[in-house]
# Entry
Amino acid sequence: MITYNSYQPTAYNSRTFTPQPQAQPRGIARKLMKLNCRILPFTRPTETISTQLDSDISPEKWKEVCEISPDKKNYWNEQTLSNSKFSAGINLLLIAASFGKGLITMFFPFSLVVTLVLELSYGVIDSWGHIFSLSWFPFGTAAYYFPPSIFFWGMAELINKGYWNPRFMHACKIFSMNRRTGMVTLYHGRDKVRYSHPFIEFDCLLASNPGPQGQMLYSLYLVHRYHGYQHAVPLNGLIGSKQMVAEYYRVWNMIQRFMDVSQPLPDTLVLEESRPLDPVTAAYDQQTGRDPEYWRKMTEEAFRRTIHSIRSQQNSTPEKEKVLNIFESA
# Structure
């Protein structure tokens, strides 16, 4: 049974936090501040959500994912928000499988057509076996690429269908944020901890740089305020680099709301099934009478209309968030 004691003393609470000392930017923070960079303030989180976050996930797609991988742990749940990347092994397998599939599904039919045209035109082929051999061995090299093409393509299909889960296919964590402990952790290598500190000790920085075509590109980072680390917590995996500035503020609001144990979880499709597992959120939903399947029972059309309505309302009447002074008095 989950109780309020599930939250550790280090959990972040926007109502009862300990004022933090001021600090000068150093390490990666100093480098980012040299760019066109701004610090997003801590605020009292609101119900505002980013409609661009997971914008490609609809109720129907969510059901498909749950049916295919019912035991797969979601990247965002009642306890953690994490981001991962493919390991080198996964990247190499994907490249090899794509190349092998292309050779088998495209090169062979093309070679077969060319061979048949030669036969019809010049009558140089005396059997179907000869046609097959010429189709696959036009340059005498198919013996080298045909077996590995079949092997890597077949391996990728087995993994994709869930029949095989080799160790090298496990994704590597980039970072994790834990609501119950209040800790933010950055990883390197195969899930090795680079550092881990309380959420309130991080500054959220929004950096901007012009892209190749002059379009402004944005990057969101968490930087530890009191250590000169050379690595920041990259939040780019949560949202793209070509959104409006206001969207990054909304993402930061959602992150604060997630980490703030005095607030319920952000109200989104991805987090909906996790809401009953968080004590503050469960109590809030019971008090307000929220439908437990508000998002998940929507049709595709209803979901699009709802997202469009939220987006229009937030763009036309942006909420004024209460900025928190988390620092000690001078």
